[in-house]
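Weekly modeling sync, notes
Attendees: AB, CL, MP (scribe)

Item 1: holo prediction request
CL wants a bound-state model with zinc ion before deciding which constructs to order. AB pointed out that an apo prediction alone won't tell us much about the pocket. Agreed to run with the ligand included and paste results into these notes for async review.

Input as submitted:
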Amino acid sequence: MSKNVEAKKSGYFPFEYYESFLKYIFHNKDHIEVITYNDIEWCDDYDHENAYKDEWENWNKKLARGEISKEKIYLLIQHDVDKSPALTTQAIEYEKKYGLKSNIMLFNKRVNRKHLQQTGEVVFDEGYISEIEAWKKYEKDGFVFCYHANSYEQANFDREKARNIFENDIKILKKIFNINFFSPHGGARCPAGLSNASLQIPESLQNDIRWVANGATVKFNGVFSDGGPNLKTIDPNKRDLKDFVASWKPGKRYRIITHPQYYVTPCSISPRLLEAKWYGEMLASYANQSNDYWDNVGLNFNEENVSKYKKIKIRLNHLSFLKNIWK
Ligand SMILES: [Zn+2]
């Protein structure tokens, strides 16, 4: 009960919005290939400071040589499990249903961020990891579990302690999952304004774990995140997932970061997002159960566009044929 109430308070999107997005990816599976961090060929590249330059060069060489298809769009989905793990379970289950896979960032110990920010005291959410242990079974379906680094918060902003906690978190999580990647959690900020992302990788793990998002990243041709939906610093008009999908081009690699705790039915309304037209339209569409929200989103080379192109070509050929007989 309390879990649902908590989820409801922070959920800004009906779950069906995410589910129908997955269905859209599934229907376009001939054009979109969903990949994980495990599918990326890292070439021994641990150089996060240069955004894994060797990996990106290798990827592009392979595309140029046709060893990776230039006809496909490559999509990586990352979930940051900040709270309410049951809502991530729901997302994973639907991804599995549509034959998709994702990368899931998880804590070893979840810190109550508000409490820390307001009181300076670190309090842990003991239930978090016990819910997550059951996800081990999804690894065989291709789901990739990673560390959502929050050791700086856990250490109450003591950098030395934070490094030890980081190492220990990895050690403990590795007992359950194959942890090879991490992304720092935004989380609380120390009095100097620094967050989890300000901590460097402990030396012992520098050739063991890769920093893939938030503060450092592997390269993509485009990225989208639903993080901080109420932030005044991000224009809500630029948060329309449909616009992001419509920008995709074949031969390019994209990433979507979601926080599954935001996707719950019924959801709350974000006043900040409501400033953008798309958000109101999306809410109305799912409130009416119209089920066609993604129908008009054309990929750059979907059947319709191809047939339109063919029709034009036929028309042009026909014209040149007529020109020839009139000569
Ligand atoms: Zn997070």
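Recorded for review: The domain at 3-285 is CATH 3.20.20 (TIM Barrel).
Action items: CL to compare against the apo run; MP to circulate these notes.
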